[in-house]
Amino acid sequence: MSQVYLITGCSSGLGHEFARQALQRGHKVIATARDIAKLASLRELGAATLALDVISSQEELNQTVAAALTIYGSVDVLVNNAGYTLFGAVEDLSYEGCLREFQTNVFGPMSVTRALLPHFRGRNAGTIVNVGSLCAWETYPGVGAYSASKAAIRYFTEALAQETAHTGIRALLVEPGQFRTELLSPQNSTFVETSIPEYREVTAASFTAFRDVHGKQRGDPTKAVMCTLDVIHGENGASGRKWPGELALGPDAVEAIRNKCERTLALLNEWQGFSSETDAEPS
């Protein structure tokens, strides 16, 4: 059955690929981006397009979502994909820089979701897909702000899923590893160079690694989106499987998440006795 997708951040990367593949599978797509001119290729494929900046006010986003609902009469799947990457040591980051990171990666998806939830509740159906990152599990020097934003979207998605499970609304957190998108391009990333000697070596090594990997990442975004669409629609390799709620994408993401869980369990076991001696004494 054909469904209607509303997708943010469609000018490039995973958002563009979500739109392209959803259309290819016979679904209807409302593709959005800050600059609607960058969506011309998707319009040629049959997508409807809207200008949407996720850092707009809640009122503006409500109006944009209302306009989206008039195009096909409904929306079945929301994909919160728009993202921005801020690199810099914690001491070097400004409040304004961190605010932009969280506005784009956290507050924006939350606001778009809030705008669409009344529609989903009225239909007792809907799917919300939030694009997270393995960086919610494994971070690096100079990546604290981005990792914090992706950790926030992880737990926002988990809470949302618990709140809406009885309403017919599903939430899916997708946590990709490294994929060959434009996320690390100059247009989508900011590197804050340090002037503090103590941070130069660790941040320089981290910045160089991320800059050098741009365009050479191991992951194929076509395959990432294919897997996600299979989960959403219960098709191909996802057929007959239970709804996962969260989906790691890429062997690097699987390994990073597994290693983090193993280290966390080992730490809990090591400190269990000490950590547990905190109950109040019986009265």
UniProtKB/TrEMBL annotation:
GO terms for molecular function: oxidoreductase activity. The keyword NADP applies. SMART domains: PKS_KR (SM00822). InterPro entries: KR_dom, NAD(P)-bd_dom_sf, Sc_DH/Rdtase_CS, SDR_fam, SDR_oxidoreductase. One of its GO terms (biological process) is secondary metabolite biosynthetic process. Gene3D superfamilies: NAD(P)-binding Rossmann-like Domain (3.40.50.720). Keywords: NADP, Oxidoreductase. Transmembrane segments: none annotated. Residues 3-177 form the Ketoreductase domain. Pfam families: adh_short. Belongs to the short-chain dehydrogenases/reductases (SDR) family. This is Putative short-chain oxidoreductase. It comes from Aspergillus homomorphus (strain CBS 101889).
